[in-house]
């Protein structure tokens, strides 16, 4: 566990340093590393973009045809609705792209041929071999319950999340009839339902822990709930700053959902 986390910390530090060095050299403060359409690391200003804008950019890039580099004008609905940024992307490995939001200079060719090579070469081995490129996308010190098909961990206080629909890594799914896209849809639907129906005050309290929302949460809010369907089961719980949604196979008995979910939260809470 210690070795795995040390490796992950070193890998993240390498990627963050490369991203932080490339951006000012390219005249930008907005940059990130996308791994399988998810943000692995980003500059501080990228995290300060409105959540919807960051999601829109990642989704937009995921819809584009794969290529080695791009230079596309984009408008951000709130940050820059009238003057376009240049969205520059550079393919490092299949599924791994560096993204920048720049002004009119420097040229795409200059950044691609000189800056990307210079700043990302030291991190290239880590990109190829590191845990950030695993299908699961994170490192754990204990195995997950075998019936887990997916999980979503949200920390509203820092506006970040971790999501996986291959929580056991790239091995074949365990007799599940749910495709990866169906898992994503189920998790997304369940999260939207519980966050808007049951956990509203809980999430407000996590964003503003010193506010009255914390007292409302203690006295009136639901902290755990579950749902069962023909194809899967879901369990959600809030604790501290975290909201966890877990997607289980139907083989997991209903009475086990709570204990399994609490054990999972204990294992993944350190990620955010």
Integer tally of domains: 2
Determine and state the CATH class of the largest domain: Alpha Beta
Q: Over all CA atoms, what is the radius of gyration?
A: 20 Å
Task: Compute the number of strand runs.
Answer: 10
Low-confidence stretches: 1-5, 213-219
**CATH fold type of the largest domain:** Beta-Lactamase
Oligomeric nature of the chains: single chain
For the biggest β-sheet, the strand order reads 2-1-5-4-3
User: Structural class per helix/strand content?
Assistant: alpha+beta
* Helix percentage: 25-40%
Which sheet architecture does the biggest sheet show?
5 strands, antiparallel
End-to-end gap: 17 Å
- Mean pLDDT figure: 82
Second rung of CATH, namely the architecture of the largest domain: 2-Layer Sandwich
What percentage of the residues does DSSP assign to strands (E)? 25-35%
The number of helical elements comes to 9
Shape: elongated
Secondary-structure element sequence? HEEHHEEEHHEEHHHEEEH
């Amino acid at each position: 566990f210690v070795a795995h986390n040390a490796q992950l910390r070193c890998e993240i530090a390498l990627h963050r340093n490369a991203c932080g060095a490339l951006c000012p050299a390219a005249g930008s403060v907005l940059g990130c590393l996308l791994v399988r359409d998810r943000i692995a690391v980003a500059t501080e200003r990228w995290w300060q973009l409105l959540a919807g804008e960051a999601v829109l950019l990642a989704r937009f890039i995921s819809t584009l045809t794969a290529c080695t580099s791009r230079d596309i004008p984009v408008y951000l609905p709130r940050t820059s609705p009238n003057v376009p940024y240049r969205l520059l992307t550079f393919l490092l490995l299949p599924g791994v792209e560096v993204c920048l939001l720049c002004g009119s200079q420097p040229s795409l060719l200059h950044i691609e041929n000189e800056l990307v090579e210079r700043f990302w070469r030291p991190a290239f081995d880590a990109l190829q071999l590191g845990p950030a490129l695993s299908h699961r996308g994170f490192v754990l010190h204990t195995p997950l319950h075998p019936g887990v098909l997916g999980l979503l961990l949200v920390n509203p206080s820092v506006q970040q999340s971790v999501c996986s629909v291959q929580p056991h890594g790239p091995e074949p799914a365990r007799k599940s009839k749910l495709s990866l896209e169906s898992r994503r849809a189920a998790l997304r639907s369940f999260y939207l339902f519980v966050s808007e129906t049951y956990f509203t005050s809980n999430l407000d309290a996590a964003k503003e822990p010193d506010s009255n929302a914390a007292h409302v949460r203690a006295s009136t809010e639901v902290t755990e709930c579950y749902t069962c369907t023909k194809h899967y089961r879901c369990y959600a719980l809030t604790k501290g700053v975290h909201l966890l949604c877990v997607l289980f196979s139907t083989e997991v008995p209903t009475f086990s959902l709570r204990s399994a979910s609490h054990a999972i939260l204990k294992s993944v809470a350190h990620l955010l």
